[in-house]
Amino acid sequence: MAASEIDDFIGKNDDEILTLDQNEEEIDRIAEIFKDRCLFISGGTGFMGKVLVEKLLRSCGDLKKIYLLIRPKKGKHPDERIKEMFNNVLFDLVKKQKGEDVILSKVAAIAGDVTELGLGIQPNDLETLRNEVTIIYHCAATVRFDEPLRKAVFMNTRGTKYMLEFAKSVKHLDFFAHVSTAYCHLHVKTLYERVYDPPANPHKVISACEWLTDEQVAAIEQKILGDIPNTYAYTKSLSESLVAENFGELPAMILRPSIVIPVWREPVPGWTDNINGPTGLLIAAGKGILRTMYCNSTCYGDFLPVDVSVNGMLVSSWYFLAHGKKEVNQVAHMTSSKEIKVSWNEIVELGRWVIENKMPLNWVAWYPGGSFKTNYYVHCVCALLQHWLPAVFIDLLARLFGYPPFMLKVHRRLANGLKVFEYYANNVWDFDNTEALRMRKLLNERERRTYIIEKVDLDLVDYFTNCTICARRLILKESKFAIPHFEFAIPP
């Protein structure tokens, strides 16, 4: 991407914000704390992981090295996956500022897998990490809410156990951050920044999953989960308890972001690499595929843009490293509902207005519309009439014209997603963020501009517009020439 294209994409206002005044009297203490350090990150190629790596390289560029734990995937070597990651538009700004060769020299791939004993890391790589690393971010997790329990336990819970065992072997470890979720203790309607009891003994659950087969675990999954609606919340809760067990032995902290949504301001407004959560709903509704949802429209979710979440992670890291675990609460929330409450109805209406007036989508199945239903049975009838019957009709037409059917498959995926969404859309949780409020007061002006964790003043119209543009170009792979009033330049 050319420099002029980056400037066009980010926009003048954001570019001015990113180019901070170099006030010699104000030192960026957060960048200083990372200077000459080696970091080890699991899950660095995931949605939040990519943004974390980009922010570290751009704002804390004097760090020595970032080691990323990467699984070989689809026949690609981990080094190839890193180069592929850096080809993403997310990294264009830092490549412009620092130079591609510089940032590539700062990042190294470590072949491994959190589901394997010893993280699946080769002995020579293990020795390097044990000697050099001082900070660990454990971000790796399966975020599929409907993941089979046994697989979710191995990835989320046993993977955390293996990461903790590795952390204990690091010779000069100063900080271990476990990235959890604010939605892992769903029986607590107001979640505070403290440790909660797990739903079961994590060691026994891991042991049971190791000697039972997939089929045996699946047969008793619902009984094991009890009132917990999905395997994601269950296994993340178990993982937190493993970290808490080691608070006395490790300089560890549990970080709980809420529902992480696309980038707000930097480096690319609206950037995402998936259509999970609100972005998926926006696209499905804009395409006319989503016509009905079972949801209490007056309820609200706790959303936080991924760049703000990552800022919170870095500020929490600095706070811990600067003050030590005896003075710091070892649980911190990156949440927004304490200060901002936007109902589901407000989100949908704003998204609909953007789709209808600013950024209509191509190849729609039906004019954007539909509504929330507070009665489950009314929703089921509407889903039959507005989702399933039209899908059957479209697939029949596709077969008649010699094309493979596709709409029923789309609606099955949509129905699975809505099944997960319904639980969260019809309940409300609040999250205390005392630690964030405390840390804000300690930041100087330069740090406040670089690592924004203040109350997020979102212009929702602009935000949804940027999200739609990025989803169309980066997820749906539409040409920029197909987007009306296209004002941003993302490379094909």
Structural features, described:
Its main location: membrane. The chain is of the alpha/beta class and 492 residues long. It has a domain of 310 residues: 3-Layer(aba) Sandwich (Rossmann fold). It contains 21 helices and 13 strands. The strands form four sheets. It has a seven-stranded parallel beta sheet with strand order 3-2-1-4-5-7-11, with helices on both faces. A two-stranded parallel sheet has the order 6-13. The protein is globular and about 65 Å long. The N terminus and C terminus are likely disordered.
Write down the Rg.
23 Å
- Proportion of β residues? 5-15%
Largest sheet, in brief, is: 7 strands, parallel
Under CATH, the topology of the domain at 20-266 and 302-338 and 429-454 can be stated as Rossmann fold
Low-confidence stretches: 1-24, 488-492
Number of helices: 21
Pfam family, one: Sterile
Main location: membrane
Membrane topology: Multi-pass membrane protein
GO molecular function: alcohol-forming long-chain fatty acyl-CoA reductase activity; alcohol-forming very long-chain fatty acyl-CoA reductase activity
In short, what is this structure?
This protein is an alpha/beta fold and 492 residues long. 49% of the residues lie in helices and 11% in strands.
Topology:
Layout: H1 3-10, H2 12-18, H3 29-34, E1 38-42, H4 47-59, E2 65-70, H5 78-86, H6 92-98, H7 100-106, E3 107-111, H8 123-132, E4 133-138, H9 149-169, E5 175-179, E6 190-191, H10 202-211, H11 214-219, H12 221-225, H13 231-245, E7 252-257, E8 259-261, H14 278-286, E9 292-294, E10 303-305, H15 306-323, E11 331-334, H16 344-357, E12 371-373, H17 376-400, H18 407-425, E13 430-431, H19 434-442, H20 445-450, H21 460-475
